[in-house]
Design brief:
Blueprint lengths: L7 H15 L6 H10 L6 H12 L4 H22 L9 E2 L2 E2 L1 H5 L1 H22 L2 H15 L4 H11 L6 H26 L4 H28 L2 H4 L12 H23 L9 H12 L3
Antiparallel strand pairs: 1-2
Helix pairs in contact: 1-4, 2-6, 3-4, 3-9, 4-6, 4-9, 6-7, 7-9, 8-9, 9-10, 10-12, 10-13, 12-13
Bound molecules: geranylgeranyl diphosphate (GRG).
Geranylgeranyl diphosphate binds next to helix 4, helix 8, helix 9 and helix 10.
């Protein structure tokens, strides 16, 4: 089992409590479908990243909680869409049947839109206008054609085709990296961080996000459903970091990216040790 850093449990509790408060409690099928994925047990790495960046920039982690929840809601929406038959056609997520298998495809799509909508609503309801609009605009860019949506489109087109390493990197900088960068930036913004701190944390998150994806590819080959909560050996029709570099090469690449991520933290000194711990967790995780 993966050992989370000691500070994780407390941060996960804050995010879970906020999500339980804001995600509707299940009167209709679409509400139940929203809660089914958004409140399922998960690592909440992106949300914890929001809180850590806020704390590091001398902010109040409590103030960053709605931003962390919004990032987590976007992530949950993306998981529902990613698992659809027209996308990855995945049967299992977070240790449960995929959302569309439980609720039907139409309700799953509505639930994903519901979670996205709730993410923006949460930002608007929780922050004063300049901060709320900056965070909303960041998330919108991260989700859009230069982020998750663009990465997903390239990924779909790459299935059953050979692609270059550069293309593979572009896919995952969009699909996975963009939301990590938005998470770190939202956390720093909630703390009123200086531009150089925001830039350093974005550089950290960009490298951490790609490392996270490489380990995701590794776990598809070397991991177990009991730990990951999803089907393994599911990437057979895709080029992955493991099919490109082998298990050892991919592991080394993930470690190098975490070291590069940590180098971006130099200006914070020892105050950024929790982010360094997060890097170690990402490089060695089993779930
Ligand atoms: C409109 C939001 C939106 C997205 C449309 C479907 C899509 C475009 C993008 C897919 C993005 C995606 C699901 C990337 C995979 C990222 C990844 C490594 C997921 C696994 O994340 P974990 O391990 O999972 O953090 P848990 O369950 O712990 O949250």
């Amino acid at each position: 089992m993966t050992a989370f850093p000691s500070f994780f449990a407390d941060h996960q509790r804050r995010v879970t409590s906020e999500l339980s408060r804001i995600v509707p409690s299940g009167a209709s099928p679409v509400e139940r479908a929203m809660a089914y994925t958004a409140l399922a047990p998960s690592k909440q790495v992106r949300a914890v990243l929001v809180l850590l960046c806020a704390e590091l920039c001398r902010g109040d982690a409590a103030r960053a909680v709605p931003g962390a929840a919004a990032v987590e809601l976007v992530h949950a929406a993306s998981l529902i869409l990613d698992d659809l038959p027209s996308m990855d056609d995945a049967p299992l997520r977070r240790g449960r049947r995929a959302n569309h298998l439980e609720f039907g495809e139409a309700t799953a799509i509505l639930a994903a839109f519901g979670l996205l909508n709730l993410a923006y609503g949460t930002l608007a309801a929780s922050y004063e206008p300049p901060l709320a609009s900056r965070m909303a605009s960041l998330l919108s860019d991260a989700i859009g054609p230069a982020g998750l949506i663009g990465g997903q489109e390239l990924d779909l087109r790459a299935t059953d085709r050979e692609i270059t390493f550069e293309m593979l990197e572009q896919i995952h900088r969009g699909k996975t990296g963009a939301l990590f960068v938005a998470a770190a930036t939202c956390g720093a913004l909630s703390a009123g961080a200086a531009p150089e701190s925001i830039a350093a944390l974005a550089a950290y998150a960009k490298n951490l996000g790609l490392a996270f994806q490489i380990v995701d590819d590794l776990l598809d080959v070397t991991g177990h459903t009991a730990d990951t909560g999803k089907a393994v050996r599911a990437d057979a029709r895709k080029t992955t970091f493991v099919s490109f570099s082998g298990v050892d090469g991919a592991r080394q690449l993930a470690e190098e990216l975490c070291e590069t991520a940590n180098r971006a933290l130099a200006l914070f000194g020892a105050k950024a040790d929790r982010l360094r711990e997060l890097s170690s967790f990402v490089a060695s995780r089993r779930a």
